[in-house]
Amino acid sequence: MAWVVGVDEAGYGPNLGPLVMTAVACRVPDALAGADLWHTLRPAVRRAADADERLLIDDSKAVYSTARGLAALEQGVLAALRPVAASVGAFLADLCAADVLADLAGEAWYRGAGPLPTHAAADALADVGGRFHAACDGSGVGRWMARSVLVCAPRFNALLDAHASKGVVLGHALCELLRAVHQLIPAGEPVCFFIDKHGGRNAYAAMIQHALSDGFVVAGREGMAASDYRVHGLGRDVRLTFRPRADAEHFCVALASMTSKYLRERLMEEFNAFWQGHVPGLRATAGYPGDARRFLDAVLPAAARLGIPTDRLWRRK
Predict the structure, then answer these.
(1) How many CA atoms lie within 13 A of 34 on its CB side?
(2) Are 150 and 89 in contact (CB under 8 A)?
(3) Does any domain span residue 159?
(4) CA triplet 151, 9, 176: central angle to 5 degrees?
(5) pLDDT confidence of residue 41
(6) What per-residue confidence (pLDDT) applies to 175?
(7) Phi first, then psi: what are they for 8, rounded to 5°?
(8) pTM score of the predicted model
(9) CATH number, domain at 183?
(10) What is the model's pLDDT at position 200?
(11) What one-character-per-residue DSSP string does 34-103 give?
């Protein structure tokens, strides 16, 4: 048996709210290590181009928009990952390391009390989730695991101060996830990572070496189309492939994209609700440049009254 792991992020571009990066892993028979899981699980899953009752798993941008709302995104994430948690906070407690949870607890706006599910109908969620896991059982796919890293504004700005590069934030989150997945997966079982490329970056060997320091990283091709690596000396076969738009090509990357986006949107609901409670009539924000400045200017007087420095609220890049 082998493990297939997809990694993707949401929230790298905004000035407000957290960056979320997620790794989604599933255990598959060796024959399916390079298979198209949309095809393998087609009785139960579909892509956005299809219109039927199967579970929608795709790049988060094809699943979610402000007009469509969070229902399909929530349904896909909760049906596939099947958290036993009853709230967003409990779900995050299962997904995140202690230091990430401590950072989040330090945010004035965070409560984590939002119930699961909130946007998707519970009966429909149970139905599509049951069909999804039956298809997995029938094809030998599973178990499923996920881990997430959240980078809130204070840590985001601290990383910028230490390294003078926004890209280091993505590297920090990825290193944390690579270590976490390597520790979680049973010894000796091979792992293939598929990772959405970090902008125009082509070289990742040093980043991987830093994350998996007990191994030795060997680079294959490194270019715009893909960058491939193997890590020797870890007691298992470890391969990593970075591709642009990997969320459109690999099932686990798409599910990681959806999970990251879902968590960010649920946290932005809390972020907006907190500030709207202190600034009557405040219009919600998604946190992206342009609108983020409008929101910041509106909340700064309240932030001053609450003793919240701008650096705890505003990501400088």
Answers:
(1) 3
(2) no
(3) yes
(4) 55
(5) 97
(6) 97
(7) -155, 165
(8) 0.97
(9) 3.30.420.10
(10) 83
(11) TS-HHHHTTTTEE-TT--SSSEE-S-HHHH--TTT-SHHHHHHHHHHH----SBHHHHHHHHS-HHHHHH
pLDDT at 1: 87
- Say what the pLDDT of residue 214 is: 96
Largest CA distance in the chain: 60
Which tokens in the block code for residue 243? 């591709």
DSSP states along 218-284: EEEEESSS-EEEEEESSSS-EEEEEETTGGGT-HHHHHHHHHHHHHHHHHHHHHHHHHHHHSTTPPP
Residue 142, Cα to own-chain centre: how many angstroms?
A: 19
What is the enclosing helix (H) or strand (E) of 292? helix 291-306
Return the bridge partners of 45, or none.
Answer: 55
Low-confidence ranges of the chain (pLDDT < 70): none
Asked whether residue 218 is domain-assigned, the answer is yes
Assess if residue 209 is contained within a domain: yes
pLDDT computed for residue 282 by the predictor: 98
188 occurs within a structural domain: yes
Looking at residue 157, its pLDDT comes to 97
Strand partners, 196: 243
Domains of the chain: total: 1
Pairing of strands 45-46, 19-28: unpaired
Q: State which residues form the domain around 149.
A: 2-269
Give Cα separations from 243 to 167, 215, 288 (angstroms). 16, 22, 25
In 65-197, which ranges are E strands? Answer: 144-151, 191-196
